[in-house]
Specification:
Elements lengths: L2 H11 L5 E18 L4 E14 L4 E5 L4 H6 L12 H10 L13 H15 L3 H5 L6 E2 L2 E3 L9 H14 L4 E5 L4 H15 L4 E5 L6 H11 L7 E2 L7 H10 L4 E3 L5 H9 L6 E2 L3 H18 L3 E2 L7 H11 L17 E3 L22 E2 L12 H7 E7 L1
Parallel strand pairs: 5-6, 5-12, 6-7, 7-8, 8-9, 9-10, 10-11
Antiparallel strand pairs: 1-2, 1-14, 2-3, 4-13
Helix pairs in contact: 4-11, 6-7, 7-8, 10-11, 11-12
Length: 391
């Protein structure tokens, strides 16, 4: 749907819809088994779901941030407005000073996604039809798992887990590193040998290293045929990323912690990384739409980060339907996104139909109105530890 068609449909169909309340659900649940990465260990999963209610009975849902500090002090930014003002609301939140007392990029991805969900339901269309052209009906995700656990031998445990994900149909796996150069090299080599050369493998260091250490380790990892190295150094070490990209053969990836403005200015325009990994929790679908074309123009692959509930996965699938191929090749760089498979008590429990791989290793993009999932309010309430309501 182009802009003119969208505006015409919105004006004729939804002129009376108004937002009556926003409910922010802070979820939390303990894990059966703790897991760790380079920065920490955790025995808990958390997430935030944003529920937008309207006066016509339509309720939209999003997974991620809601700028609740700004909404609580400025409820007029959202209440009484049309959900079709999503981009204007995004800009209004962006223009206000946040906790740092200065204007800055908006971090309201959950709220923004919920507004797009309302719009799609109001028009009877999947959100992908509102975001742009649909290039595909299914996406092949990559599997995120393979964290550190309390195994007697880390390499042996990771190899066993990697083989289980491969058996379930995943064509690409991502494992955590960032423990030490020596340990990283040992476990990556072990996993690569276990899964064979035909299975894609990526690594994520979660900003563990300085640029010098990352460069030295990266040269040792180059022979392991890695699809990418995610966050080898701090996200704000822009000169460091430029140095690594110049000297390493492994594609670099990053961007999951940054708002849309920072991604555009620091990562996309200077082509800082080969693969951009924005987080819809932060940038929302409005931000996603903005950066999609810019990534295509700058020949940067989009591979969204995804760490939340099935509500977030649904929003990302809608987004991925609209990502234009980077080249016209028949076997072009694949469109993919992160599919978290670590333990989460509520990830799938909060929706009626969870997402699973089809036999061909893909996930179909939902075609029902909105983002394409039905949230179970009782399940949300079961895991909700704090409810913030703006009405």
């Amino acid at each position: 749907m182009n802009s003119a068609q969208f505006q015409s449909a919105a004006a004729s169909t939804t002129s009376g819809i108004r937002i009556t309340s926003v409910r922010i659900h802070k979820l939390s649940a303990p894990l059966k088994e703790r897991f760790g990465w380079s920065l920490n260990w955790t025995s808990l999963r958390t997430a935030t779901l944003v529920e937008v209610r309207t006066d016509c009975g339509i309720t939209g849902w999003g997974d991620g941030e809601a700028s609740e500090d700004l909404l609580l002090s400025h409820p007029d930014l959202i209440l009484g407005r049309s959900p079709f003002e999503a981009e204007a609301i995004y800009e209004d939140l962006r223009a206000l000073p946040g906790k740092q007392e200065r204007p800055g990029p908006s971090r309201c991805g959950g709220l923004d996604t919920a507004l797009w969900d309302v719009m799609g339901q109001a028009l009877g269309l999947p959100v992908s039809r509102l975001l742009g052209s649909q290039y595909r009906s299914a996406v092949r995700p990559y599997c995120t798992a393979m964290y550190r656990k309390d195994w007697p031998d880390l390499a042996e445990g990771l190899c066993e887990e990697a083989l289980s994900w491969k058996k379930q149909g995943f064509r690409t796996l991502k494992m955590k590193i960032g423990y030490s150069p020596e340990l990283d090299l040992r476990i990556v080599r072990a996993v690569r040998e276990a899964i064979g050369p035909e299975t894609g493998l990526a690594v994520d260091a979660n900003c563990a290293y300085t640029v010098g250490t990352a460069q030295a380790l990266g040269r040792q990892l180059e022979d392991e045929n890695l699809l990418w190295w995610e966050e080898p150094i701090m996200a704000n070490d822009l000169a460091g990323y430029a140095r690594l990209r110049q000297h390493l053969r492994i594609p670099l990836a990053g961007g999951e912690t940054l708002p849309a403005d920072d991604l555009i200015r620091d990562y996309i325009q200077p082509r800082l990384v080969d693969i951009l990994q924005p987080e819809v929790e932060i940038i929302g679908l409005t931000g996603a739409r903005r950066i999609t074309q810019l990534c295509w123009l700058n020949h940067i692959q989009l591979v969204p980060h995804n760490w939340g509930t099935a509500v977030r996965t649904a929003a990302i699938l809608q987004w991925m339907a609209t990502v234009q191929p980077l080249t016209p090749a028949l076997d072009a760089c694949p469109t993919t996104f992160e599919f978290d498979q670590t333990e989460s008590p509520f990830r799938d429990a909060v929706v009626e139909n969870a997402f699973h791989l089809d036999a061909d290793g893909t996930i179909p993009i939902p075609q029902s109105p909105g983002i394409g999932v039905r949230v179970i309010p009782d399940a949300v309430a079961q895991f909700c530890k704090q409810l913030i309501e703006i009405k």
